[in-house]
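Hi Q.,

Before the meeting this afternoon, I wanted you to have the iron/sulfur cluster prediction in hand. No need to reply - just skim if you have a minute. The sequence and ligand are here:
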Amino acid sequence: MTAPVAATQPNDIAATAQIEKRPLERYVAPAKPSLIGLSRMALAEVFGAAGVPERQRRMRVQQVWHWLYVRGAQDFDAMTTLSKELRVELARRFTLARPEIAAEQVSVDGTRKWLLRLPGEVAGRPHEVECVYIPETDRGTLCISSQVGCTLNCSFCHTGTQRLVRNLTPGEIVGQVVLARDRLADWTPAHSAAAAEPEKRLISNVVMMGMGEPLYNFEAVRDGLGVVGDGDGLSISKRRITLSTSGVVPNIARAGAEIGVMLAVSLHAVTDELRNELVPLNRKYPLRELLDACRNYPGLSNARRITFEYVMLKGVNDSLADARALLRLIKGIPAKINLIPFNPWPGSRYECSDWEQIEKFSEVVFNAGYASPVRTPRGRDILAACGQLKSATEKLSARERLALRAMVMTD
Ligand code: SAH
Ligand code: SF4
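Predicted structure with the ligand bound:
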């Protein structure tokens, strides 16, 4: 079994000030749209509307892209390669706003968690999602959300019990990466060579394993991750971005063709009978169809494997016979298996498997030649406090704890 990797985040970063929770009443939805997350084509249109002649637009887009995604500009005035008039015109119509950080917590192990507020349908009632940064020895992973809540009702998942659901926009998806770079001071300073060495950044990897089912917000996820992966900007290569799906089969092939990031599939069970109960979407797209879609995912090789996530539920899916059946199911698919200790939540009907059982399960998988890291829960200290992030009077506070628990894990 792969040993948990220790955090080695420098203390100075872990020690920087946290942000106390801001009162909900202070939330004001932005009056103007943000440029963050717009495609190059949309930016060219912005310049067109601002009176920039067509022949100059490409260059202007390239300049703004650099300010937004390499230098992390938070103010139009910083964009010194643009004329003063153009900066004023842009500022008149747009902002560079990221999602509002309502609170920030830093764990002793360097894990950082942000509570974010996004405009809601009702004025003064913003939505809240979380975004988590997990430092490890050889990488730093940012876990981002794709939806507020989730329409699927996986029986072990807290997010699925949340009533309110809305899709995040591409700007809100990209904005999570941008604000994390702001808070970690992870931008490229002027005249630095760091841009050429993206792996030296604090945020080297992105996983879409936060709230929501990304393949039910396909276009926004595709467009947002396109910006995150853009080599002239945020530059997190597609090989370092992983999208986790519960198994929206028709969109898996589409994700391969149109998004091209690494795929993680929440398998969790080896029979349709059990998977129907754990992941009800299985009734629509049963195991055979799901595994066929995985087999056909483009570009798979030993260096590009699918990650199968498997939550360890005591006495439910954790027998060694299950482990062997799992191996038979995924035979022939270049794969990794991620065993996730179940994170209980108030009212959940499952328990986490015993540690010895997880180890035995992992050994069967490992002996068959698969890497089978057990995800180490991270940021436990701030997790304990996460219920305090939101006020007790907010209906969703308990439910959203699940999202945090699911998020503060890495492979
Ligand atoms: N909706 C997507 C991505 C978000 S969930 C999906 O289901 O894949 C990210 C991962 O956390 C999934 O593998 C999910 O099954 C798992 N998860 C959800 N609730 C959990 C819990 N209480 N304990 C452990 N893992 C959980
Ligand atoms: Fe949604 Fe994923 Fe939770 Fe299932 S596990 S309810 S798909 S967020």
